[in-house]
Design brief:
103 residues, mainly alpha, 0% strand, Serine Threonine Protein Phosphatase 5, Tetratricopeptide repeat, 6 helices
Length: 103
């Protein structure tokens, strides 16, 4: 395990209320080709930090890579809803583009 990955896992345990730490952990898992672990972190994030919009695009991309397009559509749609609720039109546009690429 990389030092960075170990440090992020410790940070998640130490600061469980910070979605950015979870996001960093998920991206590090993705970089290490541990896609199932990354998706597990994103599931936790959706449960705990549903309004943290960046998670949806990354989770959707991973699901697409894994050939799970239907699940990717669901996640991206949830992300669009979260982005609109947060009045983040830029993020909503990125998520809509990612969703359109799945069709």
């Amino acid at each position: 395990m990389s030092k960075r990955l170990a440090a992020l896992e410790k940070m998640v345990a130490a600061v469980p209320s910070d979605p950015f730490v979870y996001y960093g952990l998920a991206l590090e898992y993705r970089s290490a080709a541990r896609l199932d672990d990354a998706l597990g972190v994103f599931v936790t994030m959706r449960e705990r930090f549903a309004s943290y919009v960046p998670q949806y695009l990354m989770a959707g991309q991973i699901l697409k890579e894994l050939g799970r397009k239907d699940h990717a559509r669901e996640v991206l749609t949830l992300g669009i809803q979260a982005a609109r609720a947060g009045r983040d039109s830029h993020a909503a546009g990125e998520l809509e583009s990612a969703l359109a690429e799945l069709s």
